[in-house]
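#lab-general

N.A. 3:47 PM
ok so I finally got the sequence cleaned up, no stray characters, all 116 residues accounted for. can someone with queue access submit it? mine expired

B.Y. 3:52 PM
send it over

N.A. 3:53 PM
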Amino acid sequence: QVQLVESGGGLVQPGGSLRLSCAASGIIFSIYTMGWYRQAPGKQRELVATITSGGSTNYADSVKGLFTISRDNANDTVYLQMNNLEAEDTAIYYCRLTLSVVRAYWGKGTLVTVSS
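B.Y. 4:20 PM
back already:
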């Protein structure tokens, strides 16, 4: 059974940083593209960043230069380092493992709240 478990969310002040983690189990993690998505209150879920099995990355324009996605294949974990957070970054952040164009696994999400 494939499981993706996110952690690292919480309350942070504007300008602060957080690092999210997503631990995968039940699957050969290293061969799949991983991604982080987020859903803010009242909005649709959106792509934040992805990283391929080979380490190629892609970012939403809104987070380029601020967020960094990385992966540790030895520990089946993907990370999202988020710097200079703003209130607009408040959302539930989800981890996704892409099996194919039409199939993926999702974690349950971790809440990030940016507020003073």
